[in-house]
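Hi R.,

Here's the chain you asked about this morning:
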Amino acid sequence: MSLVNLIPPDIKYAVMAVVVACLLPYVFAILSKKVGGFDFKTDNHHPRDFLAKTTGLSARLNAAQANSFESLPIFIGAVLLAMYCFVPQNIINFLAWFYVLLRVIFGVAYAYDLAMFRSVIWGLSLMCCLQLFYFSIKML
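And the predicted structure, written out as tokens:
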């Protein structure tokens, strides 16, 4: 029995994964601001200027935020297309949550400046999306 067969076939799990993936960049942004010493009284007038001037951990968390936003369209598109093409829901759920897990690991790797590991994780998260596209094509 494969791990995918243990995943429930309810659509709500994929929807929750998409919601978590959409919120993850905001988590990185909040952490970036907190670590960087963001002051809501003064820095909130131009928060992007503040983040552009950060360095170290704060800058890396901000980069993780930006990359997370950049990867969202392909992920959301892959999940929706897989649902539209009637890919088995437990496969969609597994790949969607595996993507989310990889994106969390990606953010941690980015924060701790683990460049090569981060790139591998980025590639694996992209592969989750590509697998959903592949399964969508196979269902046609």
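The two ends are 26 Å apart (CA to CA).

Let me know if you need anything else.
M.
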